[in-house]
Amino acid sequence: MTYCVGLKLNAGLVLLSDTRTNAGLDNIACYRKMYTFEEPGERVVVVMTAGSLSVTQTTLARLAEAIDDEMADETTSIMKAQTMLQVASIIGHTLSRTRREIVEQMREFNQQASASMIVAGQRKGGDMRMFLIYPEGNFIEATDDTPFLQIGEHKYGKPILDRVVTPATSMADAQKAVLLSMDSTLRSNLSVGMPLDLAVIEKDACAITSKRRILEGDPDFMEMSAAWSAALRDSFVKVSI
Amino acid sequence: MTYCVGLKLNAGLVLLSDTRTNAGLDNIACYRKMYTFEEPGERVVVVMTAGSLSVTQTTLARLAEAIDDEMADETTSIMKAQTMLQVASIIGHTLSRTRREIVEQMREFNQQASASMIVAGQRKGGDMRMFLIYPEGNFIEATDDTPFLQIGEHKYGKPILDRVVTPATSMADAQKAVLLSMDSTLRSNLSVGMPLDLAVIEKDACAITSKRRILEGDPDFMEMSAAWSAALRDSFVKVSI
């Protein structure tokens, strides 16, 4: 499985993904699930993926091919699309077409293939936007009521987000929130694993403000994780029934 | 859906279930999912259920019928079974038989029916034991390595259990842990709902030590829930990345 989470806040976008891919429990590998596309100052798009690797890789390869294609226009290249809505629409269309083809190939073996994506970014002069794209190509958008989107193993890490994230959350707190949400997921589910990819996009920068790969054994992450466990246990002792 | 959780600790058993049953989002009802059977001082058995109500109710009705049947023996009545293992085996057998019949009736409508159960208890002279019974009738048992079992919507409430529950946890802390685990689930998933049923069985009592229904708006539960939210937010502020 996978866990990817994105926050859309007043101050910017914060995106985090794990890197574990598995075909059964005995076949585990590390694959990047976060892809960034940018023309700094003009446009930034981040895509995070969950689901069948054959579907997500082929979809991303097709999106990249369209970007490099000199004949591509605003309806086929996410780097030429006029709006973030159009970006989501191109990705949704490419995802659903790719999935349909792969499902068709697999039909005689009675196997399924599916994938979903989170797409976030901003175009100069436009608003920051973040979408969750379903396997069928349709999508929903993050709003002030629900400023976060999750794909993959989303349940373990949801309670902390439900409690602390609002559109007014600072970028520093937002990074802490997604890392703690990931920490809960890593602890409770083997199919989500380190390293992690964290990207931060400040509002109106139209560029990746910071991007970081957090490796297994990263001292800052381990310290935060231990401090959170200790704080939770302290809180547990303090609360009375 | 449902959320039921049981802890098997050195000091005793703690069991908690919600009561929400739904057929779609627009058909929600309240049904007890915790059933207790006891001959105080001699034997206590608690069964918690998740899954299709038709399967769980019919299974429980058959178990109750066998208890009342004068012809029943240790292989058919859970109140006559010689060991908790035999209790689990009778329940597993009854569950899988009931499920098979109902699935057969539904086959032409291409519908499924399934259910799982947690069974916990003690017989005088025996050990406390707790089992998770699968729809097929086979089961696993709680151990010192994994002193809790969950059925239904188990993911939201697992991180807190993973962090605080060990076999040495006190009975008071255990009740707090299951209630906080339920609180996280209630907040993040509509298909789990109040009221709650909480049962406590102290070691070697071979009887229900305490049993309580916690209603919507229960002031103690609301206070605990608010204190936990506040403590989590405090912890969140304190932890640094």
Distance between the termini of chain A: 36 Å
* Quaternary structure: homodimer
Largest interface: A-B, 36 and 35 residues
- Nearest-integer average pLDDT of chain A: 94
Main sheet attributes: strand count, strand direction, barrel closure of chain A? 5 strands, antiparallel
CATH architecture title of chain A: 4-Layer Sandwich
Order of SSEs of chain A: EEEEEEHHEEEEHHEEH
Helix content of chain A: 25-40%
Number of domains of chain A: 1
Detail the poorly predicted runs of chain A: none
Number of helices, counting only DSSP H or I runs of 4 residues or more of chain A: 5
Name the shape of chain A in a single word. globular
Protein name (chains A, B): Peptidase
Pfam family, one (chains A, B): Proteasome
InterPro entries (chains A, B): Ntn_hydrolases_N, Proteasome_sua/b, UCP009120_prtse
GO biological process, one term (chains A, B): proteolysis involved in protein catabolic process
Describe this entry's structure for a reader.
The structure is a homodimer of 241-residue chains. Chain A has a single domain, classed as Aminohydrolase, N-terminal nucleophile (Ntn) domain (Glutamine Phosphoribosylpyrophosphate, subunit 1, domain 1, 4-Layer Sandwich). The first copy, chain A, has five helices and twelve strands. In chain A, strand 5 and strand 6 (43-51) form a beta hairpin. The first copy, chain A, is globular, with a radius of gyration of 18 Å. Chain A is 35% helix and 28% strand. The longest helix of chain A is centred in the middle third of the chain and has 23 residues, at 84-106. In chain A, the strands form three sheets. In chain A, strands 10-1-2-11-12 form a five-stranded antiparallel sheet, covered by helices on one side. The first copy, chain A, has helices at residues 53-68, 84-106, 158-164, 171-188, 219-238; strands spanning 3-9, 12-17, 20-22, 28-30, 34-39, 43-51, 115-123, 129-133, 139-141, 148-152, 196-202, 210-214. Chain A is α+β, with helices and mostly antiparallel strands and 241 residues long.
